[in-house]
Design goal:
The structure is a single chain. Strands 12, 15, 16, 17, 18, 19, 20, 21, 22 and 23 form a 10-stranded antiparallel beta sheet that branches. The protein has a 5-stranded mixed beta sheet with strand order 1-10-9-6-7, with no helix packed on it. It is built from 2 helices and 23 strands. It has 2 domains: 2-100, Immunoglobulin-like; 109-277, Glucose Permease (Domain IIA), CATH 2.70.70. The protein is mostly beta strands. It has helices at 117-120, 127-141, and strands spanning 2-4, 6-14, 19-27, 35-39, 46-50, 56-59, 62-64, 71-75, 84-89, 95-100, 109-112, 161-164, 169-172, 175-179, 182-186, 192-194, 199-208, 212-220, 223-233, 240-241, 246-250, 260-267, 270-272.
């Protein structure tokens, strides 16, 4: 028997970011076990779900992996506007369904000058290198592992001044380019970078053309952190890292005007906002 859930929403407004923190409890009756969400139901947000163990979950008709304790995760694209359907089939066979419509956001425009011209408009002789870098990153982001490192509050990988944010339209040396997908944190070269959540190292590259020293950590179920412009990488491919463990150091490699960390998060091929995974700090 199908039953349609109602979302009970409690909104916490975050003045620094102008975003909404969504805690949704899906419930059908007093007798049924709830399905809980935590995260941000906004463009670029990530929602982490908790269903009764033994449930099955589908998102827009596609089955999602679910942990032994009922954990699952999915992300919302920057330009997502339409309601999307979530179905949870409980261990007793009942289907619970709901729709989630992302709250729209306004994104900044950021101008960056002083970049090396070849990093804005690459010469033909490096295009093969750039394509290979993109292939390696795309392949790593397609990892759908069973381990669960995402089911904790994320921490900042380092402290520092935020100089760039997710979704901002980049104007590089006066030329419009693609949106920025990460959060930039300024810090001196050599500052330790910590794992924001546990996971397995999915990509290590000492010198990509645009991102320089590049490290990916797979938090499970398609949720992936990327750390760019690194000076030194202190872990190896396939290594498990714990939350808070030093994994690299800040640098200014690749397309960069100064030492900083560019921390990005994706869910499968959806670029989401890393900043929404941690609490706002002033």
């Amino acid at each position: 028997m199908n039953r349609f859930l109602h979302l009970s929403l409690l909104h916490f407004f975050m003045p620094r970011y102008g975003l909404v923190l969504l805690w949704a409890v899906l419930s059908c009756s007093a007798q049924a076990e709830p399905v809980e969400f935590r995260g941000h139901s906004v463009q670029g947000g990530v929602l982490i779900g908790q269903a009764p163990p033994g449930s099955q979950v589908s998102w827009n008709g596609e089955a999602l992996p679910i942990g032994e304790q009922g954990q699952f995760v999915f992300g919302l694209a920057k330009d997502a506007t339409k309601a999307t359907a979530l179905r949870v089939t409980l261990p007793n066979g009942e289907d619970w369904e709901t729709e989630i419509t992302p709250t729209p956001r306004e994104f900044q425009v950021q101008r960056i000058d002083g970049l090396e011209p070849s990093k804005v408009t690459p010469p033909p002789e490096v295009m093969e290198r750039i394509a290979n870098d993109a292939h390696l990153a795309r392949t790593a982001r397609q990892t759908i592992s069973e381990h669960i490192g995402f089911d904790v509050p994320f921490i900042w990988p380092l402290e520092g001044r935020i100089t760039g944010v997710y979704g901002s339209q980049r104007i590089l040396n006066g030329e419009p380019r693609a949106p920025h997908w990460g959060v930039d944190i300024a810090a001196p070269t050599g500052t330790p970078v910590l794992a924001p959540a546990a996971g397995k190292v999915a990509l290590v590259h000492e010198d990509m053309y645009f991102s320089g020293g590049t490290l990916f950590v797979d938090h499970g179920h398609g949720l992936m952190s990327a750390f760019l412009h690194l000076d030194q990488i202190d872990v190896v491919l396939g290594q498990w890292v714990d939350q808070g463990q030093p994994i690299a150091t800040v640098g200014s490699t690749g397309r960069s005007t100064g030492p900083h960390l560019d921390w990005r998060v994706s869910w499968r091929d959806v670029r989401v906002d890393a900043q929404l995974l941690v609490e706002a700090t002033d």
